[in-house]
Amino acid sequence: MTEQKLRPRRMRISPAMRDMVRENQLSPKDFVYPIFVVPGENICAEIPSMPNCFHLSVENAVKLAREIHALGIPAVEVFGLPAYKDEDGSSAWDMASPVQRAIAAIREAVPELVIVGDVCLCQYTTHGHCGHLTGHYVDNDKTLALLQKVAVSQAKAGADIVAPSDMMDGRVAAIREALDANHFETVSIMSYAVKYASGYYGPFRDAADSAPAFGDRRQYQMDPANAREALKEVDLDIEEGADIIMVKPALAYLDIVRRVRDHIHHPVAVYNVSGEYAMVKAAAANGWIDEKRIVLETLTGMKRAGADIIITYHAIDAAKWLAG
Length: 324
Fold this sequence. Notes:
Layout: H1 15-21, E1 31-37, E2 44-47, E3 50-56, H2 58-70, E4 75-80, H3 98-109, E5 114-119, E6 133-134, E7 137-138, H4 140-157, E8 161-164, H5 171-181, E9 188-195, H6 202-208, H7 228-240, E10 244-248, H8 254-263, E11 268-272, H9 274-285, H10 291-305, E12 309-312, H11 315-323
Helix pairs in contact: 2-3, 3-4, 4-5
């Protein structure tokens, strides 16, 4: 028998050895935690399809933000349900709406926390689509002016980053122009540059009450079969002034994350979306998987694929597991 001299297993022989040669280190500093704020007071209501995620009134969102900061998580992304809806989603830029109030309250209470504002219209419109409608068509160019109003309102409230998730053409340039014109040159844009028309968003529509009243969003979100198109979207958004590029969803699109990471020098974010989260929680509740092990393995896979920033509903649990 030939003597075996090549032994990669030597580097796996002990926990200390594995730690020393590990290529990717997952940290709470990689995470952004999404928060859902709603009108009213003293509200903390679990979202049925997203266990351990909650609709929160503004004062409870502030309490959660303090906990998040104490865990070493550097950022939150603020989503919200409005007090009213209309055709163009005007509550999305109303300074009295829950999102703007929560951003301002968190900024005052936890000034060290990075606050991301989600710039979209679907949960604010009566029809549930991401922009101004002409018939059943989402009018791209008329929507841009609405998105500018949303981004500026969030910057006024205290957001460090605005994150357009609508997938309108030219939105990054329009938002950058509006921010700069209103003296918010230091507010960054994290573009949902590569956002697929995915079935993984189902529970989020429960959380944000944002299901479209007719049709779907395939006329503006990307076809899941396309990969080269992702790089085209990335190039356009960088040319328009995006500071961070996002791929959404994450888990079924890690090949896209790697392509994007290899293609650009900007920070890359991924969104570990609601459907990915809900499947893990359901399997764990049935005793079919080890939740901690699966979550940390999954998040590590996203980082290994090239993500610098991971937006995830697992962030609080993962931060506690990594600390413990």
